[in-house]
Amino acid sequence: MNEHQIANTLFDMIHIAGTAGTSALLGSVIGVLCLDNALRNDVMSEVNAVWNGKKTLDLDALDQLTILNQVILETARLYPPVRFVSQLTTEAGEVEIGEQKCPFQKGTRLLGSIFTANRDANRYQNPDDFDLTRNFSDILSWNGEGHERACPGKSLSIGFIKIFCLHLFHNYQWDSITEVKWDFEKVTAVTPNNLVLQGFAQRL
Predict the structure, then answer these.
(1) Kind and range of the H or E run holding 34
(2) Going residue by residue through the chain (204 aa), what tens digit of pLDDT does each one get?
(3) Which of 66, 136, 159, 193 is buried most, with the most CB atoms less than 10 Å from its CB?
(4) Rounded to whole angstroms, how far apart are CA atoms 6 and 196?
(5) Residue 128, CA distances (Å) to 55, 77, 115, 116, 119 in order
């Protein structure tokens, strides 16, 4: 990696994945769980099973949250924490958009819409449906595994969200919620910014 690639990687990991992307995805995960009572109950049952009456968690606690892990991945597919991915080309070439061939020169920055790709019917069956049984081995929201520019903050981001949910659903409760709505007109990460957990209180 050259110095520019290193700088880009560090920026992605520290700023986008570590703060902006993680907070946006966390908001979307909470939004999804607020809208689906059955799924939220499944996650809460899993969380309580992991705690199992203990005051401290085991080291493998995060690995036991299989349902929550799938919720996070499918939420990231439908509501990607980073809307676009860019790459500087190392050689000239062309891309085909629709029936139009678009040539580009070496050093051109190509920008791809993760949001659009994650809802591609040629890649995912019923792409607009929330489905925990999908194959997430090459999820585009983190640029997948084994790619030239895979997201270095994927595991960190998922781990933070799992820890937050472990404590949220085990230790707190709320009476109602405000509207859960994603603004797809924004070009930044989509998250239900106006969601409020009303009557929020610690469990006794």
Answers:
(1) helix 21-35
(2) 677 777 776 666 665 555 678 888 999 999 999 999 999 999 999 999 999 888 888 878 999 999 999 999 999 999 988 777 778 888 999 988 888 999 999 999 888 888 888 888 988 899 999 999 998 876 666 655 555 556 667 888 899 999 999 999 999 999 999 999 998 877 677 788 889 999 989 987
(3) 136
(4) 38
(5) 39, 10, 11, 11, 6
